[in-house]
Design a protein that fits this description.
The protein is an alpha/beta fold. It folds into 2 domains: 194 residues, 3-Layer(aba) Sandwich (Rossmann fold), CATH 3.40.50; 134 residues, no CATH class. The protein is built from 13 helices and 8 strands. The strands form 2 sheets. Strands 3-2-1-6-7 form a 5-stranded parallel beta sheet. A 3-stranded antiparallel beta sheet has the order 5-4-8. Helix 4 links the parallel strand 1 and strand 2. Helix 6 crosses helix 13, helix 10 packs across helix 11 and helix 11 crosses helix 13.
Length: 355
């Protein structure tokens, strides 16, 4: 979204005018709470899904100021956040202490792939694992003429699988434990959860439901939408208070774009702040096409991390060459370490490709 569009949203946002609200897709917290109470779930736990970036940090600060109640703050590590996001999470933990706030702050991850998206990608690249969860840009090749054409994107499933579901599981585990129950036991009928997600009003299109598809007693709420707060507004709030303002995302996220889009998520930032992570992204970008060419994957489109549907190391050729000269050996050690880890944990007959 262009800055002018963000400004437009800032002039007249009102969630009640939005069709997502009118059609009952977006519900207010009061509505969600009333629904849970009607179902007899009168012990409601309030959870913040903390992403370490800007909007959920805005909610976290509202919690520290006593404006929103949370029983748990939960950060799910996707395994591919830049180090500066981990530092930002640590900053907010220190702020919590400084505020004297004692809400449990849980750090969690994907339940079977503990090392997150890097593990998913390495497993996909090296074994016969077929579930691909990232929104990569695709091209297709005409089988007769060999012509390559831009196609769509793979669905974005990683946010749900590596961020939202682990938060729900961690909240569930914490509450069961609190009630003296084991993880495999049933949630008592009177317990419900409202998990707050930090989408802003300008992201209301991303809201599809308030009901968790995995757990009937878990509901999702979006307090910033209810506050008619925009992404730009949250960033301004953080800036005005001199809080950290880096946007949360994975270093290899295909939604990273070039500096032209002034939303604080771009490849330049990764190149500057974390050159080795940029090399890792180039490795994944290349390896995904390499494994796709083996014909062993259900995905038949040609995947790219960069929206231009060109190899990342070509889009940033000069930067790639410069960084490879400094960090190339480190990258090779990282790849070998991963190959050994995949062989040990996922036990393929042989690795599909080698670096
Ligand atoms: S930041 Fe990008 S890659 Fe990471 S979970 Fe979200 S959509 Fe997926």
């Amino acid at each position: 979204m262009q800055p002018e569009q963000l400004e437009l949203f800032e002039i007249t946002p009102d969630y009640r005018d939005h069709k997502k609200y009118r059609e009952g897709i977006f519900k207010t917290k009061a509505q969600i709470k009333a629904e849970l109470l009607e179902l007899g779930r009168d012990r409601i736990y309030h959870v913040l899904s903390f992403g370490g970036g800007t909007q959920s940090a805005h909610l976290l600060e509202q919690h520290f100021q006593g404006l929103i109640h949370y029983d748990y703050i939960i950060f799910s590590d996707t395994g591919a956040e830049p180090q500066f996001i981990h530092e930002q999470v640590a900053w907010w933990q220190r702020r919590q202490q400084a505020c004297g706030n004692t809400t449990p702050f849980i750090i969690t991850h994907h339940s079977s792939m503990e090392r997150g998206l890097e593990e998913m990608l390495m497993r996909y690249i090296h074994t016969d694992y077929q579930r691909f969860q990232m929104p990569v840009y695709c091209s297709t090749m005409d089988p007769v003429t060999g012509e390559i054409k831009a196609a769509g994107m793979m669905p974005r499933q990683c946010t749900v699988d590596f961020k939202i579901v682990p938060v729900k599981q961690a909240a569930r585990r914490a509450v069961l434990e609190l009630h003296g129950l084991g993880y495999r036991q049933q949630m008592p009928d009177n317990i419900g959860f409202i998990i707050d997600i930090g989408f802003s009003y300008d992201e209301i299109r991303r809201i599809n439901t308030s009901q968790s598809p995995q757990f009937k007693y878990v509901r999702l709420a979006y307090p910033l939408v209810e506050q008619n707060e925009t992404t730009a507004g949250s960033i301004r709030f953080l800036e005005d208070n001199r809080f950290p303002t880096r946007r949360s995302r994975c270093y290899l996220c295909p939604f990273n774009c070039d500096g032209a889009r002034d939303i604080g998520m771009d490849w330049d930032e990764i190149i500057e702040a974390e050159p080795l992570s940029f090399l890792k992204a180039c490795y994944f970008d290349q390896a995904l096409r390499k494994v796709q060419r083996t014909g062993s994957k259900i995905m038949k489109s040609i995947p790219f991390l960069h929206y231009s549907r060109r190899p990342l190391d070509e889009v940033y050729a000069a930067e790639h060459e410069r960084i490879s000269a400094v960090h190339g050996a480190e990258l090779n050690r990282w790849v070998s370490g991963w190959e050994a880890a995949i062989q040990k944990k996922w036990n393929p007959d042989e690795l599909l490709i080698r670096a």
